[in-house]
Design goal:
Elements lengths: L3 H15 L6 E3 L7 E3 L4 H8 L4 E2 L7 H9 L6 E2 H13 L4 H8 L3 H17 L1
Parallel strand pairs: 3-4
Antiparallel strand pairs: 1-2
């Protein structure tokens, strides 16, 4: 039979780990409706600090940014078109899809698919 002390310790442990996110807090905004927000957790703070590496297309190709990313000299955010050109340069220099993923900050599966597309385009031309 468990003692009251053991039961309290088990309840504290279960509550601490199984509680989930804190309940929303009701905030009043000036002149507007009340909004519901959650208090910041470590995961939310990490998400805010994450850098976005894929920029929206703007119709401009920046050769300096492409060269910096392709050589691995510095991490830069690229558009989809710039990313494709940089991946092509990496493959031309003998790089692998893993190197593409590392230098262009993308998932390995996406880098592999991009490398396959580029090599297929080259063999068709």
């Amino acid at each position: 039979m468990t003692s009251a002390r053991d039961a309290n310790a088990a309840r504290r442990t279960a509550t601490k780990h199984d509680a989930g996110p804190p309940p929303p807090t009701d905030h009043k905004t000036e002149g507007g409706p009340p909004i519901m927000t959650h208090t910041s957790t470590r995961d939310h703070q990490n998400a805010r600090q994450r850098t976005v590496w894929l920029l929206p297309e703007d119709g401009v190709i920046d050769p300096v940014a492409i060269e910096l990313a392709a050589t691995g000299e510095r991490s830069v955010a690229l558009t989809e078109s710039e990313r494709r050109i940089a991946a092509s340069l990496i493959l031309t220099a003998g790089g692998t899809p893993n190197l593409i993923a590392k230098r262009l900050h993308m998932a390995h599966t996406n880098a592999r698919a991009l490398a396959d597309e580029i090599t297929a385009d080259r063999s068709a031309a």
